[in-house]
Amino acid sequence: MPKGSLNVSLKGADDIFSTEESRQEQQREQVQQIPIGELFPFKNHPFKVLDDESMQRTVESVEQYGVLSPLIARPRPEGGYEIISGHRRQHAAQLAGLDALPVIVRQMDDDAAVLLMVDSNLQRENILPSERAFAYKMKLEALKNQGARSDLTSCQVGTKFRADELLAENSSESARNVQRFIRLTNLVPELLDMVDEKKIAFNPAVELSYLDESQQRDFLEAMNDTQNAPSLSQAQRLKKLAQEGHFSYDVAFAVMGEEKKDELDKVVIKNDTLRKYFPRSYTPKQMEDTIIKLLEQWQRKQQRQNER
What we know:
It is a single chain. With 308 residues, the chain is α/β, with parallel strands linked by helices. It is 52% helix and 7% strand. It has 15 helices and 5 strands. It has helices at residues 13-17, 20-27, 53-65, 87-96, 110-121, 129-145, 163-169, 175-183, 189-196, 202-208, 213-226, 232-243, 249-256, 271-275, 284-307, and strands spanning 31-35, 39-40, 71-75, 81-85, 100-105. Strand 3 and strand 4 (81-85) form a beta hairpin. The N and C termini lie far apart (125 Å).
């Protein structure tokens, strides 16, 4: 090429005659129909997909209308696609017998995928404590990887936001409560299940998370043997005893065997226990009225027997 010639590359006909609008349209995300067998769950997905009444309603909707909202997924190096948002829709589609699903495929790194996966699921109304705990933990790590400050003590002006503060900013929780939820991930699975089932309250569970695994299993045995759920004060005492090196099964049994003040003057019957004796249409007030009437009948019967 002569020294003075211009280095000019001619564009193709498509580039010459296409408009800027059409080029942008090509770059926009397109909804694809992906075979259901090529969709795989997100690694360590913290949200449970349950075959409950809500899922049954979703299946019925999918059978009637199909999947109206596309899933979001990313390509997997080993083939197929990893679901980022839409695990419940994918499961409902499987139960409904669908062969393919509408999917938006995005190229995303691990941290960006975690953030989107957690945020899309935290919008749900009913989230179990265990789901929230592991979701917050995953999101916190992703924020740290993206450069948010990970220390919890520094307060220098002008430094990056703390990761837990950024997480709290986009949720209904305070930074402190975010950390308390994440503490639950230190519980053994059996205790964490009890938190989900409301057999152990949230605040006592946070205190119990400071026990090591062996101590937690001793506590679990003591709790089962005494048939008592821990109060906050009991859990705090057990945590302190563990920190001082005085924790054992016998100590846990003694603490859990104590009679609580609030148990001295009230009787609590769980709703699930009562429901099996009443029609599903009964309101709590109707159940209460029926129980009072039956108790009055029982009392009169006892009085007649005593008078004989």
